[in-house]
Design goal:
Number of helices: 8
Helix content: 25-40%
Order of helices and strands: EEEHEHEHEEEHEEEHEHEHEEH
Number of strands: 15
Distance between the termini: 6 Å
């Protein structure tokens, strides 16, 4: 049952694994999104995706059959540029997909093959582009004196692609932290700063907000540590074994399509 503080909530909505999986829309999500808009429920799409710019994400949404405004999308790149600006770090080695670089337009980037001095090393999900040479290049930047800051665009461990589970950015960040004896600044999920930025954009307090995700650790546990109530969906990377641990979601839905019925039922009881 919802208490008075959480009536008329805001919603943070993960994308991959909740709204769509890879390039396939999950059944019923368009109708559920239409219902959210009809009910005028504040919502924000939050994603750790670093392979696409926000503009490219909007284009993908249209291809899949729904639309959003650019300010309704929070990505680690947005959080990273805010953090770099706040700390006056202007020059960076960007280990991010080419499609994401346009969102770093205010940052001076250097060639990844150079030995130029940098203020920061930014790590995103490069997927199969990672190899020894590229990872070693990031390591060499981090070993400069003075050492640049290591900035991770999230710490997601893995995700589910068309051909099964795939490593995400966290394993590569951990390797660099170990090799360079440093600690990354994390600006994507599951970092509290990412959720704080998202709540500020949403205009709701943590206690008035739900996080809907498929990752029991990166979405549900991370959000609940910030006071946000987590709704776990049984799509995307979800596995039944996720429910056997210490992390207990506030609610469990078969899919995002079930949100309107669940929401209406809970509000009716409150």
């Amino acid at each position: 049952m919802l208490d008075n503080e959480t009536v008329c909530n805001g919603i943070l909505i993960d994308l991959d694994g909740v709204i769509y999986q890879s390039d396939r829309l999950i059944a019923g999500t368009v109708d559920a999104l239409a219902w959210i808009r009809q009910q005028k429920i504040p919502h924000l799409f939050v994603t750790n995706t670093t392979s696409r710019s926000r503009r490219a994400l909007l284009d993908k949404f249209e291809t899949l059959g729904f639309t959003a405004q650019i300010e309704e999308v929070m990505t680690p790149v947005v959080a990273a540029t805010q953090w770099l600006d706040e700390h006056q770090l202007r020059k960076a080695a960007l280990f991010v997909p080419s499609g994401t670089r346009q969102d770093f337009s205010d940052i001076e980037s250097v060639s990844l093959n150079s030995d130029a001095a940098v203020d920061a090393v930014v790590i995103g999900d490069l997927g199969e582009a990672w190899d020894f040479r590229l990872l070693n290049s990031a390591f060499r930047f981090l070993m400069q004196d003075p050492a640049p800051r290591l900035v991770a665009l999230g710490m997601t461990r893995y995700w589910r692609g068309r051909d099964g589970l795939q490593l995400d950015v966290a394993p590569f960040v951990k390797a660099l932290e170990h090799a360079a004896s440093c600690e990354a600044v994390v600006v994507g999920k599951p970092a509290p700063a990412f959720f704080e930025s998202s709540l500020a954009s949403l205009g709701c307090s943590a206690g008035q907000t739900f996080m809907i995700g498929d990752d029991i650790v990166g979405d549900i546990d991370a959000a609940q540590r910030c006071g946000i109530r987590g709704i776990q969906v049984r799509t995307g990377k979800f596995r039944d074994a996720d429910l056997g641990g210490a992390i207990k979601p506030y609610a469990l839905l078969d899919s995002f399509a079930d949100l309107p019925a669940w929401w209406t039922q809970i509000l009716t009881k409150s």
